[in-house]
């Protein structure tokens, strides 16, 4: 009973009836067998075609999924390669910038130097607005001493004021406690004075004689007076002259030649001074 019930549930009744009718027709009617056989063949062919199409579509879907996985893997590999290449480009740019600085510095070193240059990187900057200082990654172990000048290829930036074995602090020329003896590079002037910091982007030139030639655009270089800074280092350019008849001295605002807000690579002058100035 259970088997019959299962058969009735699995096989639709209309299909059983259709098969019986076809069988009776095939036996009772002459030539009907061939018709039934033809219908059956067509049904089988249609079924086979449908199964083939389904299997083909299934295989295509499987291949698509497999290909999609391969494409994802290739994309990941390409992204990794692009990231590596971008990192290499950044490193090459940094090396090019450093090489450019060294080439430009060679112009300074081509002048007679009786001292060596100690290359350093800026690793810290004082965040306080009333203090203009940086920290560099060389110290006593590298031959650095207090009061040694620090420069870039553009010119003077300051001097060493605090020393550790592997680091040093540099007081920038823009600090209010900094002063540098300078002279005008123009051979027709050679006026001397003192440049002081103001805790901002500009310097103040003081103690220039009232009658000394001083004009906007004049380049100021270290004079060597005082013995701290060697003569001939570029310091800044005059951007504004302040001159009043009743004053004993004239003053000027000076823009540093070195870009003090963008310091990365600097050089400590180990000893001696520029010669031939």
CATH H level of the domain at 118-269: which superfamily? Rod shape-determining protein MreC, domain 2
Structural class: alpha+beta
Mean pLDDT: 77
* CATH topology annotation of the domain at 118-269: Thrombin, subunit H
As residue ranges, the low-confidence spans are 1-10, 110-114, 273-277
Helical content class:
25-40%
Radius of gyration: 45 Å
What is the class of the domain at 118-269 in the CATH system? Mainly Beta
Key features of this structure:
disordered C terminus, 6-stranded antiparallel β-barrel, 277 residues, 37% helix, alpha+beta, 12 strands, Thrombin, subunit H, 6-stranded antiparallel barrel, disordered N terminus
Model description:
Mean pLDDT is 77; it is low at 1-10, 110-114 and 273-277. Helix 2 crosses helix 3. It is built from 3 helices and 12 strands, in the order H-H-H-E-E-E-E-E-E-E-E-E-E-E-E. Strands 1-2-5-4-3-12 form a 6-stranded antiparallel β-barrel. The chain has a domain at 118-269: Beta Barrel (Thrombin, subunit H), CATH 2.40.10.350. It is elongated and about 135 Å long. 23% of the residues are buried. The termini are far apart. It is of the alpha+beta class.
